[in-house]
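Input structure tokens:
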């Protein structure tokens, strides 16, 4: 089972197109193809053709896909073709030649600037992706006795991390998992996501129950908000704590519905007492209530963010996750999140919110102990 939590959003790449990345192969050969077409047309035509103006477009096209050297070569060839008697380009005057020559020189300068800027952007993107992956690293295939699969699609273009987060960690008391949604979207929410995940990873080492972990996350947000004027950070989350033998799980919901339990071909939402969101300072006064669920062999827990449950089609109908989930599940839960994503996109082609899904499949050993 592959963890896809931080994989680059393929659908977002399709939506952005090549304007956000390197040009396609056909565009790179377009300047040379245009030059060859002008030459061929003049040589084939029995009469001179007044198409010399097309040569002025070759250097600017080269700027978008070629380096300074190739742009200079194509610009020089455009000038040579324009003044060569063999191509009979209707006797261009000095003004035409100077214009094409000036455009060619200017294009070389622009190509030089663009090449250096692109190199800098590549470096900055690599650093940004490394930082984002450090915040939300790829989900492992297995954490202790729990198999894991996740999917993340950030709403903001070009990002791997947005307002949603999840993590699965093993501690001395068993495997614990969290999935949540912080206030805000995109890069503005990354700092809050990093703070919450850091607090969660530390809490897993000390706290055996999700209620205590939720209280620590609530306190973390309160502390972060105290350092900002008019700051108010909050997040919704679902926390799960598996027993060491993975035969039961305790679930706490803080402002989000509980997970769906896939069992015997049906998907049932666990009845978890709805708690207050994290960051409102209510964890100590009114701690969230949890529920304990006994697990059977083959059970799977499916968690989804509101980007899934609140997605609407053209008619305004919400995506029916509970109805679709059982039909999309099979024996291997590895691709369940991907199948739900594909079905969600068919229902709502223009998903504008962060989409997060997490599949947890506990697999205790035959004697009830966690497998090695």
């Amino acid at each position: 089972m592959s963890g896809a939590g931080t994989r680059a959003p393929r659908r977002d790449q399709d939506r952005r197109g090549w304007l956000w990345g390197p040009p396609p192969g056909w565009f790179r050969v377009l300047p040379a193809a245009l030059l060859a077409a002008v030459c061929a047309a003049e040589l084939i035509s029995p009469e001179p053709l007044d198409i010399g103006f097309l040569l002025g477009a070759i250097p600017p096209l080269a700027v978008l896909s070629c380096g300074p050297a190739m742009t200079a070569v194509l610009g020089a060839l455009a000038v040579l073709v324009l003044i060569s008697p063999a191509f009979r380009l209707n006797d261009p005057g000095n003004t035409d030649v100077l214009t094409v020559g000036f455009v060619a020189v200017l294009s070389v300068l622009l190509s030089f600037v663009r090449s250096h800027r692109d190199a800098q952007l590549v470096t900055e993107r690599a650093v940004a992706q490394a930082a984002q992956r450090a915040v939300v690293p790829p989900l492992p295939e297995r954490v202790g006795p729990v198999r894991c699969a996740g999917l993340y699609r950030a709403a903001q273009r070009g990002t791997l991390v947005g307002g949603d987060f999840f993590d699965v960690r093993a501690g001395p008391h068993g495997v614990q998992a969290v999935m949540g949604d912080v206030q805000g979207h995109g890069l503005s929410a990354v700092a809050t996501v990093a703070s919450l995940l850091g607090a969660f990873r530390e809490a897993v080492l000390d706290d055996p129950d999700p209620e205590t972990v939720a209280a620590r996350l609530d306190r973390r947000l309160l502390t972060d908000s105290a350092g900002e004027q008019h700051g108010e950070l909050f997040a919704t989350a679902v926390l799960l704590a598996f027993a060491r033998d993975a035969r039961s799980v305790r679930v706490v919901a803080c402002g989000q519905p509980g997970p769906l339990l896939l069992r015997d071909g049906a998907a049932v939402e666990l009845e978890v007492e709805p708690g207050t969101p994290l960051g409102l300072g209510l964890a100590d006064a009114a701690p969230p209530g949890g529920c304990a669920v006994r697990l059977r062999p083959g059970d799977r827990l499916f968690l989804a963010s509101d980007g899934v449950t609140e997605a609407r089609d053209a008619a305004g109908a919400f995506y029916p996750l509970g109805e679709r989930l059982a039909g999309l599940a099979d024996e291997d839960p590895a691709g369940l999140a991907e199948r739900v994503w594909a079905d969600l996109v068919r229902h709502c082609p223009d998903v504008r919110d962060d989409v997060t899904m997490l599949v947890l499949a506990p697999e205790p050993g035959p004697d009830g102990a966690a497998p090695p």
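The radius of gyration is 29 Å. The chain has two domains: 19-130, 137-362.
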